[in-house]
């Protein structure tokens, strides 16, 4: 971050201000230099990866995702080598749900945490499966993502079981439920399914046409995409739709470049900038939309259409040097989700190329990890060819 | 944020305490003496530990044991309620609770009350809204009005709560409650003319209330156009109203409705700096060109294109500068397709490249 950024004024928001928020805004006006910034962020991420306080007990079932936020942040800073990578890799594999005579492949994949009491040894676990234990699509995405980021070769992943588990969660309408015991279904899980198939380079088990039909049914008259057909266009679901279509290789056929659908989508995305980005008209700018909106534009090849300095200024007004991370709004306290999404948005838009490893927007992973993924795909193809 | 519920502090609430006053740990309850609690299998060096409270660990140790045995009993039901208070985001607890309710043929009236309380305390939690739907479909004699009441209550506090709107749409579809929803959206729009969710809901009702056939008939489009123009006239700087207006004419095209051009030209007299008005006019002109519509006397394709470019240039340079790159991109694209005279760009503004 340049010295020009070090004296930015605190960002404002379009809503009425809190007393507390204003006070913290004034405290945040000094931005540290890149080395200090990287050190503060790393300290924050390492703390998250070690232990969270009791008021974070609501994360209990999703620990794998929060680990993913912290590791991904460190991957953008190119500092994952400072982590105990093998320990983390082994922990991820301990969360894999393997098939057995007592457990159908439909339940297989990854869980977010061992909170049902499953044994840490996945083979022991498979022999005595717990009744309510099943994969969750977001955890499949997060688990595979962490393995790729930390340079694992995925040899311990039961590809067939994971992919069958993903496919088993597709609904007749083409959507995906989160898991056998997590019956909610919306575009978040279409994305998780698509990106998991992408990481494993295999879309053959899911019904691609039906997914595309469902995705398109989620585009609203505003041009963005809602979580389900009929729902309001929203930044998060819009990213999920665009990324899914791109990963499925259907973006240009489903939303042709010169179509009204594409131009309405682009208009809607560009309208989401007040100073930073927000997720729906007349909602406050929120740092996480830096990614949902930013990566959407980047995936469409239109990153150049935004006002970069206004965005960067807003994003860094959400940084708290005291916490070492980013918050939703200027003046709030940092959390791992906003820390990752604020930075990943900038990285996907290529606004901080000298300081942050770029992000492949639709795959939601660093270019470095993406290259590693491609190398694994090539090796697997070569190995298959020689047999 | 979609994951907002994950960062809410643990809900503190009075629970099923057995002793007068304080909380009794499950391990100290005589009626649970037959159960061996099951701990999480984790080493001390595990990744991303959470410093659970003793109460949290104790409740979940017993929950794990019950779930492993798949016990379906009243005491297990009460245990899930305690676990849900501590962590309402745990979807497996909710699934297990539903399994118990199904086995015990549980009291759905009581469950509705319980869920209502949890929703009001955790308004952005996905699991609790799903559970509400599950109960509502099993409650005999339900007509869905309680769902409109509940979402209405939540929306009074937070008029844009995404879960509440989705639940409301579900109830309207499931219980066939289309009739009065337009009036509801009008009420909300009257309260906050920039409530995008209310405008969206209005479109949802109009488009879907006729089942398979689109509800956007010519009569409806005409009436709703006047509805939108009335609100735009009162508050022109309102993206939601303009989007809704566009949405009415998506299938037919803006240029098929000369009323729109007339209205916009009149509004220009007093609102020449309103970005939504300028953009809408540019869109109208672009539609005339794209669909090769017949033009008014004195107008040519070249003059219409020039006017559109002038409007886009105005947006980029004055009326909507944050989006200057986008408006210049749109202008470049229009010029490439339809010609017209490009206004001169000021120094410092760069035409973004088209691919």
UniProtKB/TrEMBL annotation, chain A:
Transmembrane segments: none annotated. InterPro entries: PGGT1B-like (IPR045089), Prenyltrans (IPR001330), Terpenoid_cyclase/PrenylTrfase (IPR008930). Residues 40-365 form the Prenyltransferase alpha-alpha toroid domain. Pfam families: Prenyltrans. Keywords: Metal-binding, Prenyltransferase, Repeat, Transferase, Zinc. Its cofactor is Zn(2+). Belongs to the protein prenyltransferase subunit beta family. One of its GO terms (molecular function) is metal ion binding. The keyword Transferase applies. This is Prenyltransferase alpha-alpha toroid domain-containing protein. Residues 1-29 are annotated as: Disordered. GO terms for cellular component: CAAX-protein geranylgeranyltransferase complex. Gene3D superfamilies: 1.50.10.20. The keyword Transferase applies.
From TrEMBL, chain B:
It is an enzyme of class 2 (transferase). This is Protein farnesyltransferase/geranylgeranyltransferase type-1 subunit alpha. Gene3D superfamilies: Protein prenylyltransferase (1.25.40.120). Its EC number is 2.5.1.58, 2.5.1.59. PROSITE patterns: PFTA. InterPro entries: Prenyl_trans_a. Its cofactor is Mg(2+). SUPFAM superfamilies: Protein prenylyltransferase. Keywords: Magnesium, Prenyltransferase, Repeat, Transferase. One of its GO terms (molecular function) is CAAX-protein geranylgeranyltransferase activity. PANTHER family: PROTEIN FARNESYLTRANSFERASE ALPHA SUBUNIT/RAB GERANYLGERANYL TRANSFERASE ALPHA SUBUNIT, PROTEIN FARNESYLTRANSFERASE_GERANYLGERANYLTRANSFERASE TYPE-1 SUBUNIT ALPHA. GO terms for cellular component: CAAX-protein geranylgeranyltransferase complex; protein farnesyltransferase complex. The keyword Repeat applies. Belongs to the protein prenyltransferase subunit alpha family. The keyword Cell cycle does not apply. Pfam families: PPTA (PF01239).
């Amino acid at each position: 971050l340049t010295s020009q950024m070090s004296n930015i004024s605190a960002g404002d928001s379009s809503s009425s201000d809190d007393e507390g928020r204003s006070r913290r805004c004034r405290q945040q006006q000094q931005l540290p230099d890149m080395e200090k910034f990287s050190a503060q962020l790393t300290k924050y991420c390492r703390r998250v990866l070690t232990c969270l306080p009791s008021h974070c007990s609501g994360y209990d079932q999703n620990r794998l995702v929060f680990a993913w936020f912290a590791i991904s942040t460190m991957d953008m800073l190119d500092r994952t080598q400072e982590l105990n990578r093998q320990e983390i890799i082994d922990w991820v594999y301990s969360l894999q749900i393997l098939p057995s005579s007592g457990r159908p492949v439909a339940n297989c994949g990854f869980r977010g945490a061992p909170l049902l009491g499953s044994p840490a040894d996945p083979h022991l676990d498979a022999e005595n499966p717990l009744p309510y234990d099943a994969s969750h699509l977001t955890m499949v995405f997060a688990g595979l993502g962490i393995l790729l980021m930390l340079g694992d070769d995925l040899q311990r992943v039961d590809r067939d079981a994971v992919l069958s588990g993903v496919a088993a969660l597709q609904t007749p309408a083409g959507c995906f439920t989160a898991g056998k015991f997590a019956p909610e279904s919306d575009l978040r899980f279409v994305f998780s399914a698509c990106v998991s198939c992408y990481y494993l380079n295999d879309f053959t088990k899911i019904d691609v046409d039906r997914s595309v039909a469902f995705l398109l049914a989620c585009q609203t008259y505003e041009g963005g995409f809602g979580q389900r057909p009929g729902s309001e266009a929203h930044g998060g679901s819009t990213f999920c739709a665009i990324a899914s279509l791109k990963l499925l290789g259907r973006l240009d056929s489903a939303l042709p470049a010169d179509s009204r659908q594409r131009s309405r989508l682009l208009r809607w995305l560009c309208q989401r900038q007040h100073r930073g980005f927000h997720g729906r008209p007349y909602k406050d700018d929120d740092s996480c939309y830096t990614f949902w909106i930013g990566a959407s534009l980047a995936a469409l090849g239109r990153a150049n259409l935004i006002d970069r300095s206004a965005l960067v200024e807003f994003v860094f007004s959400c940084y708290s040097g005291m916490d070492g991370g980013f918050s939703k709004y200027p003046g709030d306290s940092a959390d791992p989700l906003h820390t990752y999404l604020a930075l990943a948005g900038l990285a996907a838009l290529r606004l901080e190329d000298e300081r942050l490893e770029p992000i492949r927007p639709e795959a939601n992973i660093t270019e470095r990890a993406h290259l590693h993924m491609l190398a694994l795909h090539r090796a697997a193809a070569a190995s298959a060819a020689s047999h | 944020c979609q994951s907002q519920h994950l960062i809410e502090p643990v809900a503190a609430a009075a629970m099923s305490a057995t002793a007068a006053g304080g909380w009794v740990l499950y391990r100290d309850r005589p009626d649970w003496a037959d159960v061996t609690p099951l701990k999480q299998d984790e080493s001390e060096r595990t990744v991303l530990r959470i410093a659970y409270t003793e109460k949290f660990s104790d409740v979940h140790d017993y929950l794990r044991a019950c779930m492993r045995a798949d016990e379906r009993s009243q005491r297990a039901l009460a245990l899930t309620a305690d676990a849900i208070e501590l962590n309402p985001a745990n979807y497996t607890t909710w699934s297990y609770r539903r399994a118990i309710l199904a086995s015990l043929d549980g009291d759905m009236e009581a469950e509705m009350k319980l869920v209502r309380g949890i929703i009001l305390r955790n308004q952005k939690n996905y699991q609790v809204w799903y559970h509400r739907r599950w109960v509502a479909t099993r409650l005999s004699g339900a007509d869905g009005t309680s769902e409109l009441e509940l979402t209405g209550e939540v929306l009074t506090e937070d008029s844009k709560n995404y879960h509440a709107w989705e639940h409301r749409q579900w109830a309207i579809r499931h219980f066939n409650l289309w009739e009065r929803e337009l009036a509801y959206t009008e009420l909300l729009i009257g309260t906050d003319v920039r409530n995008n969710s209310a405008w969206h809901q209005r479109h949802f009702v109009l488009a879907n209330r006729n089942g398979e056939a689109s509800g956007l008939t010519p009569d409806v489009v005409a009436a709703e156009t006047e509805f939108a123009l009335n609100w735009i006239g009162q508050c022109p700087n309102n993206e939601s109203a303009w989007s809704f207006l566009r949405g009415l004419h998506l299938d037919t095209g803006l240029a098929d409705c000369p009323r729109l051009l007339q209205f916009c030209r009149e509004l220009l007299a007093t609102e020449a700096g309103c970005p939504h008005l300028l953009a809408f006019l540019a869109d109208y002109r672009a539609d005339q060109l794209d669909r090769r519509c017949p033009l008014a006397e004195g107008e040519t394709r070249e003059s219409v294109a020039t006017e559109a470019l002038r409007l886009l240039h105005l947006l980029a340079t004055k009326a909507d500068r944050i989006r200057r790159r986008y408006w210049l991109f749109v202008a470049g694209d229009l010029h490439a397709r339809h010609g017209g005279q490009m206004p001169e760009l000021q120094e410092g503004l760069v035409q973004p490249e088209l691919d």
